[in-house]
Amino acid sequence: MRKPFIRASVVSLVAGLCVLGTPAEARRILRAPAPAPAPGPSNLDEWALIGLTSTLVSSASGGSGVTVALLDGRTDCRDTDLSGRCTNILITGGTYTKYDNHGTHTAGIIAGTKYGVATSSRILNYGVFDDTAWVATGSRLVNAWADAASKGATIASMSFGCTGYALCFGSAEVQAMATTNLLYVKAAGNDGASLTNESIVVSHDVAAAAMARTILVGSVDVSGAMSSFSNKPGDGCLMYSGATGCASTAGSRSKKSPDASAIPEGVVIR
Question: What domains are there in the chain, each with its CATH number?
Answer without folding.
Answer: 1-35 (no CATH), 46-246 (3.40.50.200)
